[in-house]
User: Fold this.
Amino acid sequence: MKGRLATAFPWVFLLLVAGAIVWDQCTPREAMVLGEGVDGTSPATEKAAAVSDESGPTDRDPVCGMVVRKSTSYQLRYRGLYYHFCSTDCRHAAAADPERWLAARSRAPDNGHTMRGIPAWMFQFGVAVVMLVSFGLFELSARRRPTAEGPALAHRLDLLPIRSLRYRLLRWAPLRFTFQLCLVAIFALIIAAGLFGSQNPAFNIAPILTWTLWWAGLIFFVLYFGKLWCYVCPWDAVATWLERLRPWGRRRQGFGLGLRWPTKLRNIWVAVAFFVVLTWIELSQGVTSIPRVTAILALTMFSMTVVGAFLFERKSFCRYGCLVGRVSGLYALFSPFEVRTRVPVACAGCVTQECYRGSSTGDGCPTFEYPRSMERNTYCTLCMECIRTCSRDNLTVYLRPWGADLAKQRRARSDEAVLAIVLLSMTGFHGLTMIPSWPQWLQAFGAALGLSRPVAFTVLTAAIILGPILLFWFVATISAALAKHHSARTLFLHYAYALLPIALFYHLAHNAEHFLMEGPKALAIASDPFGFGWNLFGTARTVFPPLVTLEGLWFLQVLFVVVGHLYGLWICERTTRRLIPDRRRGFAAQLPMLAVMILSSSASLWLLSQPMQMRVSAM
Amino acid sequence: MDGPTLARPRRRASTVVEPQVVRHGHHSAGLKAIWRSLFCAFFAWVALCPVAEAGHVLGLGKYNYDPNALRPQLRISERVDSWQLDVSGYPGNPEPGEEIEFLVTLGHARGGRPVSGRVECTIHRVSVLGQRQRVVESQLGELDGNGYRFRVSLPDDAEYEVAFAFGDGATRTSTLSIPLVVGKPGSPWTILGGFGGGLAVFIVGVVLLGRVRNRRGLAAVTT
Assistant:
């Protein structure tokens, strides 16, 4: 029962989030009336006004500039006119000083939009919940006996129980090609629009498709579908087609050199470096709002994939060098999908090893995984080749609980541990650079040290990467001293994985701003992707409001941070039980880690409470 | 040690169905050096390319830049401290040596009513690595109606930073800096051709290298 509940939880959670969004979009808010009472100032409330179709279903919040749906907005009636707001905070601000905010002259300009962060009470509530669940779980874990993998973790649901489904669907070679072709078309559109379209990000589809829908949406996708992106990756698709000169079918001796990836680079440090460089370029150069550079970055990724495909054997670049693959791979440890053996014992006598070497029906594992002993999702690209090739039909796709790989992880790698911390710090840094005061802080920092802006930015980036790593090392040292069981290095490597859920869910909370609030604008730009004045689908002049109100978004953001924190605590507790069997010492060793996790989640909530300068505010 | 990164079969097969990859264990030092240099050069190029190109484009997010206007113009409306500043620039994307006209309207943040004050303009040229070189000394704007007018011309095709210092003369001075690009970025065909041509040369090089290697391997077997 526990196992089924654990497996079902991600999908129940998804339904809860979807239900909250639907409820948020279907609930009209009461309107506030200002300046019409006896004293002329006391606000009152009335039922929401009927939406006037003459001026369209959307309006712009006069305080923050956000586009809002009139039917679900927070309304204020002032001198007979209705004004629409994203949240009660904006409405209170306008009610407190109507001359400033509601006078036509001073309404927020169309080219600027700063989104309010979660209100103070929500921040305090979030921190209180984080601390409460931390110490509650800590208390509970102290009472429980150390056990092996529990039933909740062991539960799996075979998604391909019917043999004919496995054979017909997965062995139909053009299936993957069809998906890839769609993605390649979108990829080509991004490059064409970025290079040849209008360079105003408000009229070009390349930035919003790349940074708001794909890059932000990828995290949602990984949370539920793991590394399925690799299955349809357009860069890899075109590189493979070029290398083999055919769209599908078994790999033969292609045009590539088939070199082995250098031994010293058989880790993910190269991908970590690429990720840091990409983040630096993205944040310091503002490429998210520059269509041409967005296209250049897409071409760069494509070039790297082609170089990797032609130089190295199988898909070495995907395994060791691809930053998208490595970031999603690490997060995929948490995802609820896995490809594993059906009956592990059945593989014991297998001498043909088609899953690794390939057979007449498919290729061997392109990322050098050995599916019969595979325990983690990190390097599995869900390409399904092993399912196609296995002559014993002993591999399938399972549904499992969230975090199953992390909770039973026995092997810890330094490159992955560092990437986990870098993911946490870089995502936070991303949020930091969107705070409106960031340019002033950066300028003050540069002026204090006598550095130019790019150098000051680079120094800060380095500090934000190294600071958390050093802090975590220091905490691991304290834990090691308390545990007296393992070295600080061992604890650093193992406990770093417990930060992954916190990073992942903060990433979700942050990306929800972009995806839910800015994403719908893509529907308008889709009618005129190059900014040439087209109206292909008749939506070019339509203003699409966000998918959720700001207050609905705040609720979701706090929920994400709390859920991520809970999973982080759970992974941390499982790691402690695995590494330090002695209950008292394990209890002591876990305390410093608990402090780090509370600090991380509180910092996430603080960042979410800050106002954010939105990336496509010019739209 | 992190341990081996490559998952290998624990048991070697007694009969191999079909080897997947033909591995070439022996490469000459020359070939290794060539592909390593190519690899490093390529990655260095792709790493530097976006940084060099990033600033030199039209329509940075901060602008409300309308390229479809009769004469592309630049419009910025910002609140700085207790001031509301409206800046318009003609042309928005000037050519080298062309005169640019800025009109700056200064108002109070509350209400936005125009006020008279003092506005100065200074322009720095910004290099790719961020070094600033002053190219236009501080000049005072001439009052024209509700706004302050500046006329400058910048000789070189480059990226600049225009700084407006303003205030009412009594209180402290506030500053607004905006980026400005003079000249047009290169043709998109150049970028596409660069990437496409580079990849084509690389692929042809790899294919030729593979053939040479195969011939050498065949010759070694025959000998």
